[in-house]
Fold this sequence. Notes:
Organism (chain B): Tieghemostelium lacteum
Helix content of chain B: 55-70%
Strand order of the largest sheet of chain A: 2-3
Radius of gyration of chain A: 18 Å
Oligomer: heterodimer
Protein name (chain B): Cullin
Structural class of chain B: mainly alpha
Number of helices of chain A: 1
Radius of gyration of chain B: 51 Å
Strand order of the largest sheet of chain B: 3-4-8
Pathway (chain B): Protein modification; protein ubiquitination
Keywords (chain B): Isopeptide bond, Ubl conjugation, Ubl conjugation pathway
Pfam families (chain B): Cullin, Cullin_AB, Cullin_Nedd8
Number of strands of chain A: 3
Order of helices and strands of chain A: EEEH
CATH architecture of chain A: 2-Layer Sandwich
Amino acid sequence: MKVNITKWSSVSTWHWDVNEECCGICRMQFDYCCVDCKVPGDDCPPVWGTCNHAFHMHCILKWLNSNQQQQCPMCRCEWQFKSDQK
Amino acid sequence: MNSNVKKLGITSTGGIGAPNKKTLVIKNFKQLPKTSDTFEEDSWNKLLSAIQSIQNKQPTIYTQEELYRTVENLCSEKLYSNLYQKLEFQIDKQTERSLLKLVNQTGDIITFLHLINMCWQDHTSQLIMIRSIFLCLDRTYVIQNNQHLRSIWDLGLYYFKHYLLKFPDLVRKVNIGLLENIQKERNGDRIDSDLMHSLVKMLTALQIYNTFENEFLIETDKYYTIEGGQYMNDNEVPEYLKHTQDRVNEEYDRSIRYLDPSTKRPLIAVVEKQLIERNVSNILSKGFNNLMVENRIEDLSRLYSLFQRVNAIKELKVAFGGYIKQVGQSMINDAQKEATLIQDLIELKDKLDNILELSFSKNQILVYSLKESFEYFINLKSNKPAELIAKYADSKLRSSNKRMSEDDLEVVLNKLLILFRYIQGKDVFEAFYKQDLAKRLLMDKSASIDAEKSMISKLKTECGTSFTEKLEEMFKDIDLSNDLMNSFRDSNQFSSIGIDLNVYVLTGSNWPVQPPSTVELPVEFKEYLDVFSQFYHKKYSGRQLKWQHGVSHCIIKANFPLGKKDLFVSLFQTLLLYQYNDKSEFTIRELQESTKIEIDAIKRNLMGLLNSKTDILLRRGKQKTQPLELDDVIEFNSKFQHKLMRIKVNSIQSQETAEENKKTNDAVTQDRQYQIDAAIVRIMKDRKALNHNTLMTELFTQLKFAPKPVDLKRRVESLIEREYLGRDPENPMVYIYLT
């Protein structure tokens, strides 16, 4: 017998390319959005600091706006956005 | 007669040639006219003879006109006082005479009734005649002295009453006679209701109706006390209800036909009390459930209207609710009927609604009772009904359910939603609904997207936006994927693949999570996916794709020795069949090693291929009923044939496995724990310190599902361990919120 595939209906789920499972600020998984958003997606992406810690963009912005020192909340290094997100 | 003196002088000036005056003088009578001395006596004799003729029912010698004038003359001579007294005396005597005749009347009571009625009729008609003769007396003398004097009519009534009461036997006999007659009529005999009417009118006119009424009501009470007990014992409830209704109508009719209107209300009240009120619980316990079971709309309406008369709706409510609970409970607990439970419940609801509408005129108390009872029994078996409702919705929304028109589907879904409203475990429903919806969407099994969306919007109105948010996101993911696929198909990469590849890219958090599958794909398969992945990464950077192979499915072309076929199979089945491209038999163990598919999934997918209808593969040397073993040899069926060109083998994929079911249930349980934790912390943060029982009651009101107290206690303990809460050192029953 010989079988050949002609049509394939495949299913996948997308995930952010993040090593950590959840955002260190809101403790939500990156697969979910930050607490202020409703749906995960490009509107609520994760961002990385030069220290390689990742947070929801909304979460870290909120943190930086409410603090004098611009530090990563995880390691207290000075916070710099990593330009290339990889 | 006229003794006034009048003098009229008429002077006229004549015409031409007649200048002299003429005077017309009218002079007084020389003598005043005098009435004769015997005037009064003569007049009276005239009148007396008239009265006597009337009383003896003989014609009067004088004309009415003449008699009237006589009275008028007497009155103008101001002789009325005497006249009145004489008349009164006559009436008095005559009444006494005619009633005395009845006193010693023996013989049966009916004859007596007729006699006294006759006597009364005569008396009144005579009185009318006398009065018309003596009208002048009534209009002058009596009116002037109406404080002391009775009018002629009243005189007649007065003396009639007077003598009736003087011989109490008479009144007694009248009453007894009336009551006997009524009893006869109640027992089904015909009676002379004109006679009754006339006598009752007599009693009313004489103002002695009250005595009769009292006795009548007491008799009625006795009569129906006995009947209420006996008829209830001897007959089934429907007959009893019918009988009671007839009785009520009958008594109503009776009160109209010959009783005084004022009796209607107390009379009906007595009947209602004895026939209905006293038997409310009997009726309900003896026959209510049967009426419900047999859907006796008419009898139930009767029962309702009777009960409403005596304000027994509360009792009816208890029985109605009790019936629903009992029926519902036995349906819910019948494990064998689980498959048809929801259909059965919908039918039960329809039936009850019908009864409510047709028999109980949508009484609000009963409508509420229905709701309450459904809520009670449907939540007895914690989560199962919620799960079954979701499954039922799935069965209706699936494409296999094509027979149903959109409108019918809408009706069914609306009914289903009413049941949904009753369940507490809405989260369980959501979990299962989501699971099934995912399968319908990913495997193109949905009967109609319109119906799906309409169901979602129904759920939304029922439970709010947050309930359906995730479900709506699922639809969005599908739409997004379709857009994505369109642009993929237009791209160069797509043409390089050579097969029709369709990929759904889902947002992981919106969909029920699948266990990650580690399967060994053939090289070309991996390449197909890589092509798509590259395309995707270009569009969305910073994302990675995880493949959900468990739900992906394919169409494969198979060259069987006996013909070519298109097979609709799951991806796993494809992988298994690909093995047979090179070799025609494998053990299950070998299949597992080369495909890396989980053993349970292999067995499940093989079942579809080993099925007697689609026996593409054969198991060597074993009965079909035996469970698959690792060492079983599965070989290719070279004689496979099928009447269809396209064969669906992947139905297995859309069915729910026991494992999935358990997972869904576990997920709900897990989710509930978080909800309990959150609720406890929320309450404690607000109240700072709270004793155990108050906390429990607060929790029961806040949580949307019905939690078990044990679970709550466990969560409190867990929170204490995690130092969200502490115990009050002075009172171990009190928890305090730790900051």
